[in-house]
Amino acid sequence: MGSLLRKISIKYPSFAEYWRTNRRSPQNRRIFCRDAEHGDFHCANAECLSSYYSVFVARLAIMAMLAILIGLLTLLTWHFTKVYTNKSLETLAYGLRYELLQRPILRMWNIFNSTVEITTAQVKLSEFLIKKYGKPVNQAEQVELYQAMKDVTWALFASHKALKSITMNYKNGFVQAFHRDHRSNNTFYIYSDLVNYSISGSYDMNMLSAHRGWNDQSVHNNISAIWFREPLDPLTGEKTGKAMPIPPDDLINIAGISQVPDGVASWHVAVSKYSDSPLLSAALPVLDSSKQKSIVAVVGVTTALYSVGQLMKELVEFHTGHIYLTSREGWLLSTSTDTPLLMNSTTGPKLMMAADSEDVVIRSGAKLLQKSYGSDTPANHTVHIKDAKLGNQLYYIDSFILNLRRLPMVGVIIIPRKYIMGKVDRKAKKTLVILISASLSVLVTGCVFIFILTNGVSKEMKLRAELISHLDARRKAEASSNYKSQFLANMSHELRTPMAAVIGLLDILMCDDCLTNEQYSTITQIRRCSTALLRLLNNILDLSKVESGKLVLELAEFNLEQELEGLVDMFSVQCINHKVEIFLDLSDDIPKLIQGDSGRVVQIFANLISNSIKFTTSGYIVLRGWCQNPNTSRNARQSSFAQTNSISPNKTHDENFYKKDNRLILCFEVDDTGCGIDPSKWESVFESFEQADPSTTRLHGGTGLGLCIVRTLVNQMGGEIKFVNKSGPGSLMQLYLLLRAPIDGTTEHYKLNFPEHNLTVLLALGGKMGRLIMSSWLQQHGISTYEACDWNELTSILQELFQDGSYIQNLPNHSSIAEKHNTGDTRTSTFIIVIDIVLLNLSTGIWKEQISFLDRYRGRAKFAWILNHDTSSNIKKELSKKGHLLMVNRPLYKTKMIQIIESAIRDSELQTKINPLISTVVDREMHECLEMGPIQSEGKLEGNHNTSDGFEKNSSKPFLSPYAAVNNCFVELTEVHSDKNDLRRREQDQRGTSNDIQCLTSSNTRGSQTSLQGLRILLAEDTPVLQRVATIMLEKLGAEVVAVGDGLQVVNALHFVPKPDKYQEDSPQADENPGSQTEESCFSTYDLILMDCQMPKMDGYEATKAIRRSEIGTTWHIPIVALTAHAMSSDEAKCLEVGMDAYLTKPIDRKLMVSTILSLTRRTTI
Amino acid sequence: MEVGQLQRRFLEYTASLFNQGLLDGQFAQLQQLQDESNPDFVLEVVSLFFEDSEKLLNDLTIAVGQHIVDFKKVDAYVHQFKGSSSSIGAQRVRNVCIAFRSFCEEQNTEACMSCLLQLKQEYSLVKDKLQNLFQLEQQIVEAGGAVPMLEY
């Protein structure tokens, strides 16, 4: 078997290899498991192992079953093959043996028969002769008789070659015999001497009975008788030699009367001296023909059994084995071997027992038979013994009986098993071997197949176990991520509250007059840090909100342009410090009002711009925006920036959709000249806590949350953000937002008719980018422009233009307009010079001369000054003195430009009337007009409150109208009144400037600040103290307050007051009309409700719900602000849930209250 | 007494009140709200506070003294008290109120009792102090001086 396997493995080395690897596989697998899971999931590992073992066991079981099956099959096959073969062979063998034995026995039978026949014939002939001759009376007759007898006997003897001898024994003792010696091939005639025998001798029956017939002694031991032997020619019977006297009975047995005692034929086996085989001798009496049957002679015939032996030998030569015949007593009669059958003893040769035979096989076979059956042989004497062990071999032994009368004989045949079954046995062995090897190979193949087939299953199980463990791991990871988000949300909220407190306290502290300058600056620093920290916390909160899917965008109308301008204003302060210019470049096609979450939109841009500022040390930052309507292609002015791959949402198929749904795609670009971002990091910077270059953290700070928040917000608005390739330094980021246009569809654009006024603008700006943007925009609107980047250029252009008193164009790109100017009425055309303050040489005193220089052109051109935030008041004063009243803060953007142009046009129109007084009045009005519409966005963004845009315009009498200087929150108060730092608050009070919220210095704006002027506020507060305080507070701010004690009263108060009249109900747009609003609010209803949450009878929540219910179906929405002592977010959420608009905590912070109220009322009054 | 001296004493006294934490910025805001149109605003508010507080304290005493304390009710009272005290800037009273409310949530009767006692003490303290302050103010006004403004 082993060799077989080896052969197979030699034949199929790959198979052997496979086998070996498979045997090694458990370890590999285990190692793999460990590697895959890094030992983190022990349970999973165990699972894997257990699954592996279960597979292994299943495999083994299948293999074992297969082995058993194949084994059984093999055994059964072998068994049936062998048993049936054996059985049929046995049957055949039995027949063969029977046949083999039958034949010698038949021969024997033949011999007997022939002997008997001869004997009978002899007897009959003798009887006839004796009867013929009668009673011999004399010697001659006697001789004649004997002679006749001799002839007859010879005839018989000669005709039967097999006969050994024929004897005639007469009753008178005369013996006649023929004898044939087979060995010497001699034939003899033996006779006794006649002399001694009387003719009258008779066999006396009585005597016989008395003396047992003839006394044999008389024959055998008749000493007196002389016997002669005459050799004869065997063929003719002629006498060939002389008769020799021999002793009687020397050669042959003469059958005497004793052998035929009862006159019947007798048989016996005899031995003779001269023969080495037993002889069969028969004797028959010759009876007298007379009435009394007396025996006259005895005929004896002997036949050698030699021929039987011969036959047996022949048989055995052909078939192997041994055959022998015995008498019933066991005397050996004939064998197939050459061993002697007779035993020499002192008394002459004797028959021997089969058990004493010299042949080993016969002897042992006979002994076995004797031993197994002993004396009591079966009645029929038939025995079959299979697998008898004789010597070293197995033999079949069979014996049959030949039941002759008087001489029963037993034949035994011993055939070696090998002869019959040898080949079968060998074949059986071979078959067995082949069967076993075949089954083993089948088994092996089956096992291999099982292994291969189950390998897939085990692999699958393994994979499944892995999958389960991975799922588990993922679930865990998700859970932990969830926990993280929750934790962040909770923590940031918990942190934000104390931070807000810290900032508030710092604000209070900063208002303290007792502080020294150092303390003040320290506190300012602390406040800045705290604000930064708060912003970070807000970022985290935003992020976690987005991650936990809680961020919901609100949908409200807002003025995108205004928001962005405010944003740019805010950041420009920082930009100045960085020596970076920031520009806003919004396309005209952007609708004024847009629906969306203004806070979030602003947050997006605030993050992007602050990010750009952080990484831009010099150059510019441009925020471009345009509307991507299907019918509006991009403006030509953008083409200079080689937009290879601008973001363009698939507009072909969305076109109708957007139109129908009033949706707008607003595209924006934030372009800076900072350090830029490696293209490989373009995606990763949007991940949370990811920065393009970690080393910049030290330099610029930041957490890397900004862009992540931006992206999530942009995505939430249905937009997309990405970096775009940019030629030149810096980075270019593009994004688009999906916002809604207002439902009423009044997407009014600027419809300015500047060309009518024949305007020319000289842009003397330091920053190249800003100048380019502005001039291209102006040119679009048909305004010719000139550009100057420094003082020298400005002067040269001015001189060139005004040298002849009228301006003549040389610049080629303005030729057409210039022609227009030339042909048109030059008097009505307006020339505006926009001068950046940085063009003046401020470091020395030259700037005053420069201003004086410009003064020369005053009559012919309108001057507009772009101021820096830190432009000193001296310069401002100087400019004002010189009559340069149009001053705006940096940066210059579209709205400011429009305002400049409008005021210039108006100014020039007024100038034509030459009425300076009216002019100032108009200026004043216009100033107020410009003052309208403060930008609120930052309030939402950072909690601070920006009250006015950056448009600053002093009236012609700054000191006569002390409130005219509109405060800009980014102009630090100290810049205006730097010399009176210690007295700044009182100064501010006097001047009546509205305070920067961040400074919270609004404490003492007694009588001066009436920011809530004209508002009617319903105050619901049950605590009298609070009620009183709040009432006074609000009244101080100019609001009209009606105080009630509980929610029920609130509801009633609203109901008693006449419902908003028809005018307002019918036209919701009326809310947007400030004039009508102020009038309406006086008598119609309240502008706002301040609602305490916990009140008797009906609390704030219930009251709010009731109010909101009653509002259903109307377009009216009264702002409700919650006032509560609870300071937890859940309360805030609850407040907003029931329909309140905002939320204030007790004790009331006046600033916050004012800003909240303003933001809410403004929404309706704008 | 001289007006100047009185004024100085007034300022010192007020400052001490702030330093002791009896009052906080809210009180200062109240003072700032007081002007010609509302000359007695602070006094008015404070006396409102006194009235309100005494009523509340009575209610509280009854409520806490009940066999089975209705913590909800107590909580509402304390909440109100907290609102009014924080509105006039009585910081310590407010702090006790906060503690009181947390005990209310725990439904701890013993602690509520002690809190009530504490509340009463604090209240009487602040009442005394404020009354003194108003007396001083009165004196200043009688002496013909102006009540000095506190700078915060």
UniProtKB/TrEMBL annotation, chain A:
Keyword field: Kinase, Membrane, Phosphoprotein, Transferase, Transmembrane, Transmembrane helix, Two-component regulatory system
Extent of the signal sequence: none
Enzyme Commission no: 2.7.13.3
Residues spanning the membrane: 56-78, 431-453
Residue spans of biased composition, Polar residues class: 991-1007
Reactions catalysed, as given in the entry: ATP + protein L-histidine = ADP + protein N-phospho-L-histidine
Compositionally biased intervals (Basic and acidic residues): 978-990
Domain Histidine kinase span(s) in chain numbering: 490-741
GO MF annotations in UniProt: phosphorelay sensor kinase activity
One Pfam assignment: Response_reg
Coiled coil segments of this chain: none
Modification 4-aspartylphosphate, positions: 1092
Enzyme class: transferase
Positions of region (Disordered): 978-1007
Domain Response regulatory: 1016-1161
PROSITE patterns in UniProt: HIS_KIN (PS50109), RESPONSE_REGULATORY (PS50110)
Protein's recorded name: histidine kinase
Organism name: Daucus carota subsp. sativus
Automatic annotation (TrEMBL), chain B:
Protein name (record): Histidine-containing phosphotransfer protein
Biological process, per Gene Ontology: cytokinin-activated signaling pathway; phosphorelay signal transduction system
GO cellular component: cytosol; nucleus
Localization: Cytoplasm, Cytosol; Nucleus
Organism this protein belongs to: Daucus carota subsp. sativus (Carrot)
Key words, A-Z: Cytokinin signaling pathway, Cytoplasm, Nucleus, Phosphoprotein, Two-component regulatory system
Domain note: Histidine-containing phosphotransfer domain (HPt) contains an active histidine that mediates the phosphotransfer.
Main location: cytoplasm
Alphabetical list of PROSITE patterns matching this protein: HPT (PS50894)
Tree of life domain: Eukaryota
Modified residues (Phosphohistidine): 79
Pfam families listed in its UniProt record: Hpt
Family annotation (PANTHER family): HISTIDINE-CONTAINING PHOSPHOTRANSFER PROTEIN 1 (PTHR28242:SF5), PHOSPHORELAY INTERMEDIATE PROTEIN YPD1 (PTHR28242)
Signal peptide coordinates: none
Lineage: Eukaryota, Viridiplantae, Streptophyta, Embryophyta, Tracheophyta
Domain HPt: 38-140
Function of the molecule: Functions as a two-component phosphorelay mediators between cytokinin sensor histidine kinases and response regulators (B-type ARRs). Plays an important role in propagating cytokinin signal transduction.
InterPro entries associated with the record: AHP1-5/YPD1 (IPR045871), HPT_dom_sf (IPR036641), Sig_transdc_His_kin_Hpt_dom (IPR008207)
GO function term, MF aspect, one: histidine phosphotransfer kinase activity
